[in-house]
Amino acid sequence: MPAPYSQDLRDRVVSAVSSGSSARGAARRFGIGIGTAVRWAQRLRAEGHARARAMGGDHRSRLTGHREAVLTLIAHQPDLTLEEIRGALIERHAITVGRGTVSRFLKSHTITLKKKSARRRAAAS
Predict the structure, then answer these.
(1) Domains of the chain, residue spans
(2) pLDDT for 19-77, tens place per residue?
(3) How far is CA 27 from CA 11, 40, 46, 82, in A?
(4) Would you call 26 helix, strand, or coil by DSSP?
(5) What share of the chain is helix, strand, coil (3-state, %, to 5)?
(6) Nearest to 84 by CA among 55, 64, 113
(7) Other CB atoms within 10 Å distance of the CB of residue 76
(8) pTM beyond 0.70, yes or no
(9) What span, in angstroms and rounded, lies between the C-alpha atoms of 16 and 23?
(10) Which residues are CB-neighbours of 106 under 8 A, at least 6 positions away?
């Protein structure tokens, strides 16, 4: 994952723009993208600084509050697919989440959904 530009570079670019240079000129001079220099100049005017904003996002699971509902659903029907779990959550509990959210929730609880191949299921009957 890329890291933000250094604060020193940001300060030099916004200083050049504040001194009368255009954002394009400052971008060319310091070897950064024009859009980057424009955004920094806009942030300086709007917020009074050009510091980097926080990276990353919300990493909390949308299913944490519904843990019991998910675990009960899996306990009653252990052979459900991710899409079936997702559908049951929508239908029974009005919880709308993506398939990836269900997958990450199960992984965090070390629950694996292993299916037998069609050949093995037929042989087991």
Answers:
(1) 7-47, 64-113
(2) 999 999 999 999 999 999 999 999 999 999 999 988 887 777 888 888 898 999 988 98
(3) 13, 10, 19, 47
(4) helix
(5) 60, 0, 40
(6) 113
(7) 9
(8) no
(9) 8
(10) 74, 82, 112, 113
